[in-house]
Amino acid sequence: QSALTQPASVSGSPGQSITISCTGTSSDVAYYDYVSWYQQHPGKAPKLIIYEVNNRPSGVSDRFSGSKSGNTASLTISGLQAEDEADYYCCSYTTSSTRVFGGGTKLTIL
Amino acid sequence: QVQLVESGGGLVKTGGSLRLSCAASGFTFSGYFMSWIRQAPGKGLEWLSYISSSGGTIFYADSVKGRFTISRDNAKNSLFLQMNSLRVDDTAVYYCVRDRRLPDMWGQGTVVTVSS
Prior knowledge:
The structure holds two protein chains of two kinds.
Chain A: E1 9-12, E2 18-23, E3 35-40, E4 47-50, E5 64-69, E6 72-77, E7 86-93, E8 99-101, E9 105-109
Parallel strand pairs in A: 1-9
Antiparallel strand pairs in A: 2-6, 3-4, 3-7, 5-6, 7-8, 7-9
Chain B: E1 3-7, E2 10-13, E3 18-25, E4 33-39, E5 45-51, E6 58-60, E7 68-73, E8 78-83, E9 92-99, E10 103-106, E11 110-115
C-alpha cells in the first residue's frame, strides 16, 4: 500500500488561511469517506482534528475544516495562529481494510 | 478520560525480540478495534496492524507481516505487539491507538531502538 501524497511543507502568516492536500487512489481516499487528519507538535503524540472527511471532534477549533473531491482530500486552516505550527498527517481507510497515512506536511507560521 | 499507556520499549540488538504492551482505560476497551502505529526518527507515521474488538480479525502492513503479532486481552483492557526478528529500520516510537476504521485516540508512545 503506497502512502498518500501530501506537500512536504506549507506556510502562511497569522490570520491567513492555508490548505493542505492529500492525494490517494480509487482504493482509499476516493472509495470511502473515511479520511482523517492529525496534528502533531514536536515530541508529542498526534492528535485527531478531522475525522470522516469533514467532522471535528469535540474541542477542536472550527478554524479547522476538511473536504474531499475524488481521490484528493484537503485540510483547511483559517485564521492561522502561532500554535498551529506543527506537522499534519492525513490517513485513509482502504479497500484492503488497512489504513494508510500521508507523508506529512510541515506548517510554518511566518 | 480515555487513556492509552504503552510500555515495553527499549534497546535491542538486530534479530532480537520485544513485546510491547498498552494499558487502556476510560472507555469500553472490548468494544473497539485497536491499532499499532509507529514513527521512525524524523519520519512520518506508519500504520502497522489492527485487531478487531473480539480479536478475531487481524491485519498487518507488509513491512511487519510475519515478524510482528498483535493480540489483546479484553479482560485486562490490554493490547500487545510481539516483535520478532527486529531490524535497524524498526527503530521508532510505537503508538497504541484506538481505531474506528481510522485512529482516533493515541497513547504517548514507547521508544524502540534496534542496534546492530
